[in-house]
Amino acid sequence: MTQTASSQTDKTAFVRVNKLTKRFGRMTAVDSVDLSVAKGETMAIIGPSAAGKSVLMKCLVGIYSADEGSIFLDGDDVSRADSPARPEWAAKIGMLFQHNALFDSLTVWENICFRQIELGTLSRKAAKERATELLGLVGLAEESADLTPNDLSGGMQKRVGIARAISSDPELLLLDNPTAGLDPVLSNHIELMISKIAQQRGTTVISITNDMQIARTRYQNLTMMHDGKVYWSGKTSDIDDAHNEHLTQMLDGSSQGPITMRTGKREDGVYA
Length: 272
Ligand SMILES: Nc1ncnc2c1ncn2[C@@H]1O[C@H](COP(=O)(O)OP(=O)(O)OP(=O)(O)O)[C@@H](O)[C@H]1O
Hints:
Largest sheet: 6 strands, mixed
Pfam families: ABC_tran
Shape: globular
Helix content: 25-40%
Protein name: Organic solvent ABC transporter
Region (Disordered): 250-272
Keywords: ATP-binding, Nucleotide-binding, Transport
Mean pLDDT: 85
Number of strands: 10
Order of helices and strands: EEEHEEHEHHHHEHEHEEH
Strand order of the largest sheet: 6-7-8-3-9-10
Domain ABC transporter: 15-252
Bound molecules: adenosine-5'-triphosphate
């Protein structure tokens, strides 16, 4: 991955977002955002509340259309929810929503293979087998398959959400706060599991997190958003102590952002 999605430099990126803008009335939730991720790499998106992180994710998954700018996935233009390439990409993207979005009236296994059952790509028997296999992968017992989401703890629900997100073996995995509300030990477990899944399957992963430490240790790339804009984007290995302090201050609201930026966007379009 190159350090930002400058359209000049990142034509080969698997995920390429160019000057993406999404508005709600007069409010600009995502403001001319550039980012890019190479195939098989991982990116954490971090930023304070209302920074535009979830709206960006919803543009990537195709819930919202770009008002301006573009989104390319493996070269396909999917900038709008109704772009011709979108239907094909629906099956190639797995998403964990912020509040898991599990169906309370369905069992765990039906939730995990919901899409396959709906589309008829798997019989119910095959779907249950597949879901049970995925439960093992996310560290849940086979017996959980017949429970409903209400029977599960928050951490277990997250795991079921992740199992559903990877059920179609997606090329792109989008995770909106996979560890929100979980204790640090469980958060680490889940993040480790995500890294392993990404490594074993070669999945490209973009994940929102509020934890700078997790972002730095578990992800290859990091994008910091603030007020709908990308404030910093680059390799986590390039984050030195000064950057770390600065980004952490932005995250907890003790820095007002770009005014106190230590370094800025270079002439070649790379944030440093
Ligand atoms: N459907 C919508 N209609 C109107 N405004 C919206 C809508 N969705 C999001 N917003 C607004 O867009 C801004 C960005 O929201 P977003 O959910 O992307 O923030 P976020 O960075 O994910 O924050 P958090 O970490 O708190 O979830 C917020 O001001 C939010 O109120």
